[in-house]
Amino acid sequence: MRHGKALREAQLVLSAALARPADATGPVPRDVALGLFRRHLSRIQQSVRDSFESQSLSGVEAASQLSALTDGLIVALHEYTVSRLADEADPAEPPQAISIGATGGYGRGLLAPFSDIDLLFLTEEAPSPSVLGAIEFILYFLWDLGLKVGHATRTVAQCIEEAAVDTTVRTTLLDARLLSGDAALFAMFQARYIVACMEAGPAGFIADKQRERSLRHERYGESPFLVEPNIKEGRGGLRDMQTLYWLCRYVFGRGEPRQLVGIAAQGADQAGGGLLTEQEAKRARRSWDFLWTVRFHLHYIAGRAEERLTFDMQPVVGARMGYTRHGRQVGVERFMRHYFLTAREVMRLTHVLEPAVLRQALGTPAQAGETDAAMRAAGFMLSDGQILPAPETDFDRDPIRMLRLLALARERNLPLHPMAMHELIRCERRAATLRGDPEAAALLLSLICGDRPARREAAAAAGREAPTVPPRDRKQPAPVEVPGRPHGARWLHVLNETGLLGRLIPPWSRIVGQMQFDTYHVFTVDEHTIEAVRILGTLEAGALANETPVANGLVEDLQSRRALYVAALLHDIAKGRGGDHSELGSELALEICPQLGLTAEETETVSWLVLHHLLLSQTAFRRDIDDPKTILDLADTIQSPERLKLLLLLTIVDMRAVSGKVWNAWKAALLRELYTRVAEVLAGGLATTERDIRVARAKDEATALLQEDGFSEAETERFLSLGYGGYWLSFDSEAHQRHARMIRDSEQRASALTVETQPLPARAVTEVTVYTNDHAGLFSHIAGALAVAGASIVDARIHTMTNGMALDTFWIQDATDGTFDAPHRLARLSSLVEQALAGRLDLAGEISKASRGVMARRMRAIHVPPRVVIDNRASNTHTVIEVNGRDRPGLLHDVTNAMSQQGMQIASAHITTYGVRAVDVFYVKDVFGLKVSNERKLHDLREALLLVLTRAEEAVVLPASGAVRRSKNGTEAA
């Protein structure tokens, strides 16, 4: 349906229904008219929806048609209002002209299903009582129709005055168009507004829109690659394209529509009058329409003005847009990659178009006097403290200059001029010719690694940005600079955004915009990688000394610095290819590193680091590092102290780059302990196999502390006789001292149960120790009580003493991964443990209550396949069971309860969560204290655990399977 035809039909249908019957004495009553308008509104909304969902209309076409049909409704309502109030008008009141205009997005002729309808009621002078009454009638009528209306009532003079002092008003009026009323009055307003804008000049408006955009990005995320993006306000979203449109509209005026460079009100129809190439204009049209299509789907699915692509929305929108599984990549990941590549395209469009608009509005950048001879000879110049190619420099003819420009900017710590980004993006395809060029490889490697920072300037280096330049005149554009990206990451960001990195390293292009549909990774793979390089630079600068003291010391004297930076760049280079990305990435590193100019030794080191970049984290968080075999196996794999250093540093930056919530003091402590033990073996110190010597040493240290604490010789001997060897190797001497006090006090009171809590702020955990009679299911009951108390268990050690008592230790955190240390919560926790062990607490019921409302609907959209892995080779003394399932309150209780029912004795538990996925590892023995080797027993154990995990997943996923449903009023909800 053509827009003009749709508008005419809407007006004719509604006008006919509202026409006064020949025998009537007045207009149609308001309640009758309201019913007519409601039915008409429902018809036009459903018509647009049906056409859009049948793919007869694209997103932009649907937005345009919905706007045109809404125009007809507003016009008909104005006509009805005039006739309705005509008889009530005061004859003595002189008639006053009024115009009704559409502003904002509606003014551009684009309207989303649940967006506000922005109206301007325009008068030449202060509105009379009858005009105010008509405006009030219209607004209340629209509200009764259920529409959201943004409105303003202004005179022409007020519009001009407010636009002069408020950029938001000036922007809103930029797209004002007449809907109904006095056309001459509206034309006069438009003429005066254009004159006022011309007199004000573009500089102030441009600066205000750039500042507004910066604040918006700061609020919604500087990165466009957040895995739950805001498609309207986020970086690379619709608002960024609208900002470009506003700049073009303001600079080129309403009289030259062919200059509206690709994003005019009806979409990207023009090539931009020379500002955009035809290919760039085509990509702009494609991006504009894609984002509007996604927005329409979001609104219809949510039944409201939803602008965020949350996890529960992503698979539904992707499916509606036709994205299905392709190979190993599921449809939702293909859809989200298309979105992220579109967001990147919008960013590139901004870098290409905005400088061109500014150049026409403000003039060609003048070469600054501070441009020295060396810079001129290299073909570059300074303008307002920013570096850009000189007019005679042609990147297309001499592409190596693109890397020389970035290298010089890095060397002198200069921000890039917008025109520099403009030229880099325009010529990025030529970078492919530089593959194999030794100079290009050297320049790229220097951009990645940067210079080794001076440690004495650590704090300054970590937060240092581009050097301060003199305050700019408002006529000058803001520099294209990304804050918070020191060292190599700053330039990697530029290389990635311009597309140069994908041209120079082809495998990189495959991870651009690549996401994993889970709640653990908050960035796409390419953005996560750049963040890892940024953190490595920050660590090397010494800015993380307090958080990672061991790593801070190791990074000072690295022998393989370049290898570490390149390993950080390539550690996830093979994600999304199917198979083990560590193995595939290791093979790719063998091809890429020589092309970057690394030596054979460095290449082998990088390949090894990529292959094993998950080794330390998986061992620290999923294995018992007190088990001698764990340490020996790790040492056999690593073999070199230098490799151990590199692997620890790579592990730290990889984990911290996932998200701000992944890294905490507890994980830091585990990695530090693991590093220390492996380093001891690699250095030829005390062998891990000399278990008796280590036990004796632990007892000697405990004895010295107990004697200082006033223990008698008999009390000391009593305590030393209680623990088996594994106990003495699982705790430090201070913990042994606390346990001795606890056991002594418990025996003196003849207490059947003792619960002690010890907050450990340095590790961000609270240690909970339970001393009681050992019995089957003890671990499960305690775990259940802790879940009811709202605690999250991150690690556990279970020890049965020689006197038949159990000494079970749990390390817990609160829901925010912080220390569970509030006194009232600790008191409740102890009480719940006591009730659970006494059988006075309905654990299943209480856990069910605690679980209600915990799992947000958007998290339920993520499927977590249950998985159980049983390994009898990881330990010489225990069977190791790895359980993968959806994280939830009480999971540990249910799993360990199933183990107890199968006759398993749990020695230790290691709890790790990756978003909504829990990976829990248990070291177990059978009832005879031996490894479980019977195949039938192992099969039954696996099936029992899978049953627990499957039931839990079904309980969450099945309600969410109806996430898209038709509600009573016909609206889809998610």
Automatic annotation (TrEMBL):
Protein name: Bifunctional uridylyltransferase/uridylyl-removing enzyme
Domain ACT: 767-848, 880-960
Enzyme Commission code: 2.7.7.59, 3.1.4.-
Function: Modifies, by uridylylation and deuridylylation, the PII regulatory proteins (GlnB and homologs), in response to the nitrogen status of the cell that GlnD senses through the glutamine level. Under low glutamine levels, catalyzes the conversion of the PII proteins and UTP to PII-UMP and PPi, while under higher glutamine levels, GlnD hydrolyzes PII-UMP to PII and UMP (deuridylylation). Thus, controls uridylylation state and activity of the PII proteins, and plays an important role in the regulation of nitrogen metabolism.
Gene: glnD
Record text on activity regulation: Uridylyltransferase (UTase) activity is inhibited by glutamine, while glutamine activates uridylyl-removing (UR) activity.
GO molecular function, one term: [protein-PII] uridylyltransferase activity
Native species: Lichenicoccus roseus
Family affiliation: Belongs to the GlnD family.
